[in-house]
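quick one
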Amino acid sequence: MKTDFIVVGSGIAGLNFAIEASRHGKVVLMTKKDLMESNTNYAQGGIASVLDKFDSFESHVEDTMRAGCFHNDRAAVEFLVREGPKMISKLLDLGTPFEQKSGVLKLTKEGGHHHHRVVYAGDATGHVIEKTLIKHIKSSPNITIYENALAFDLIVRDDRCLGVKYLLGNDVKAVFSKAVILATGGVGMVYRKTTNPNIATGDGLAMAYRAGAAVEDLEFMQFHPTALNKHGAPPFLISEAVRGEGGVLKNSNNERFMPRYHEMEELAPRDVVARAIAKEAESGEVTLDITHKDPELLKIRFPTIYKKLLEYGIDITRQPIPVLPAAHYMCGGVKVNLSGETNIRNLFAFGEVARTGVHGANRLASNSLLESIVFSQQVVEAVKRLEQEIEVIDFSLPKLVEGNFDEVKAGIRETMWTNVGLIRNASGLSTAIGQLKKIEEALPMGISYELAAVRNLALAGRLIAEAALARKKSLGCHWRDDEN
Ligand SMILES: Cc1cc2nc3c(=O)[nH]c(=O)nc-3n(C[C@H](O)[C@H](O)[C@H](O)COP(=O)(O)OP(=O)(O)OC[C@H]3O[C@@H](n4cnc5c(N)ncnc54)[C@H](O)[C@@H]3O)c2cc1C
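structure w/ flavin-adenine dinucleotide:
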């Protein structure tokens, strides 16, 4: 089969690309579950952009650079920030119901930001964006949607990407195109504790690496400071906006401890808050307390968090929330330029799978939805100029295999959590690399949904551990306790 553009992934990045690219050709949009399932769908806090008259592009750039420990590419950051307001207008034009008062967008503040600049929709910002974009996707005659279709390898010849191999039910197939676009999101599932949904298995990263694409900054896995820490409950994310609206962190002595760690207190950059929580948790439970705020306002501002935590027996209007850090966001990824181009011709990447240089060593809160939409727009500009014919070549497809890989997957996630987590050292990292290599070597040939996930998790985990071992000094969300 042939099409003009293949985009893998139906988060904000893939959906926005498909809508825009469908004006220039036929698009196949492939996604491994249903269209909604993505990290985007769970994003609570919002999208950062300079919209307030007292704010400035310079301030957003500086906040982003400071959070990223100046390891960011300034040109990419400046581009991101300048494009921000246009992208918010675009999302509004498409019908995204961001919160407004008298026709003016409401703005909240999150960690690391010196201004109110986060546009939001309650605490379900990502969900409303997904719903809005999917409505447009479904009405476009130029977009063919493959749900439950798992892309598992790229077809590359002479450093040019020609197509994608994928699994749909029990059928192993391939599709060829002028350009292949990876918008496959993150890799949080490589850790035992993560805020990410099951789809986040690093498939795009692993596929691109196997095909010869350059990857970078993988040691910078961001751990979100405040995931729910309750026995029997998942590490459900408690949005940074809860701290933005006045929530305070307390240790087991009921002491508010963040002022001891950073001048921005609870709204310090995420790596600082995550490590402070981990340190305080050594002596007992750490909680996030917002009970001093008006209960009715809390229910309106955080309806998803309020309802979800009630299911786990916590009423946030009356009880502090037990929290601990959990793996959240991959700052690095497949190396791309400002047009989303990788080092393989006609292979593009954007969104969480890509390393654009925007985040540096640590992502500033609410910059990732923005990055995904800004750079997906850029890739449309690049692919619409492609003139070559679609080239179809002979190819081989692997056989379907059966088998349950749950135990192997659990082993990978445990190894990563123990040895490649919030705080690292050479001994733990070397152990993880050795164990992951052994797992990779022992996996069978062939393909299945489960096998692809385990294969990609093992490879992505090893690449993260190798990058972390190579960077001997702590920087941003990469922290070594053996750096001397
Ligand atoms: C709980 C949570 C809260 C967050 N809150 C915020 C926030 O408030 N603000 C912010 O800016 N960011 C937030 N983030 C981060 C942000 O949501 C993500 O970085 C962003 O949504 C990534 O978008 P994406 O389109 O690149 O990837 P995703 O939205 O993850 O989409 C990836 C897509 O690729 C598909 N896919 C993956 N592999 C394959 C494959 N092999 N074959 C076919 N399809 C595949 C997936 O099924 C999915 O559809 C949050 C993340 C989480 C998990």
